[in-house]
Amino acid sequence: MTVRLILADDQPLVREGLRKIFEADPELSVVADVGDGRAAVEAARRLRPDVVVMDIRMPHLDGIEATRQVVAGGGGLPRVLVLTTFDLDEYVFGALRAGASGFLLKDAAPEALISAVHTIASGDALLAPAVTRLVVEKFAGTREPNRHAAARLAELSEREREVLLLMVAGRSNREIAAGLFISEATVKTHVMAVLRKVGLRDRIQAVIFGYESGLVTPGG
């Protein structure tokens, strides 16, 4: 199945270079490239791609706010890969909190860019939860729990909370199964229930939610 992409970057040469990289893979197709965040949102709503490759700093609407608007429609698609020259933690956290499914620097090798798009298009998150946890603990963990997030947390059963705790700790499904003495199939069921009940897109969002809801505290 062909993965349909939109490229959003304010530099035409960067967009052209990315187009050449991605279209070298016969399973990837760039359906549009745009130069600002507002155009990215409009194109995503009109074309419904699988993945939007989003720059952070763009005119009219920055990549973080554009990401928030792109994913606001729900339904799982499109998913957003944030691609930028900036590797500061606050940009990573801002992008992930807005709903991005991954974060990669522009100096990544072409093979890494292609692999990242396939990873995100398949429904997985690009960053390992354990890595994301370090960013979230630094930024989300320094604030008081969000009341709305805490209310959504109350919707989970005791077992689902246990699973969420282990997700926040960066445990894989296999590790969660071993720790709780249940099957991996049962873990997958619980993970899907957690994501559905609290309205999350993926495991990265679950890590952020764990801190914002007060379920986990820095160092806890």
TrEMBL record:
One of its GO terms (biological process) is phosphorelay signal transduction system. GO terms for molecular function: DNA binding. The modification 4-aspartylphosphate is found at D55. Residues 149-214 form the HTH luxR-type domain. Residues 4-121 form the Response regulatory domain. Keywords: DNA-binding, Phosphoprotein, Transcription, Transcription regulation. InterPro entries: CheY-like_superfamily, NreC/VraR/RcsB-like_REC, Sig_transdc_resp-reg_C-effctor, Sig_transdc_resp-reg_receiver, Tscrpt_reg_LuxR_C, WalR-like. PANTHER family: TRANSCRIPTIONAL REGULATORY PROTEIN NARL-RELATED, TWO-COMPONENT RESPONSE REGULATOR. This is Response regulator transcription factor. It comes from Nocardioides antri. The lineage of its organism: Bacteria, Bacillati, Actinomycetota, Actinomycetes, Propionibacteriales.
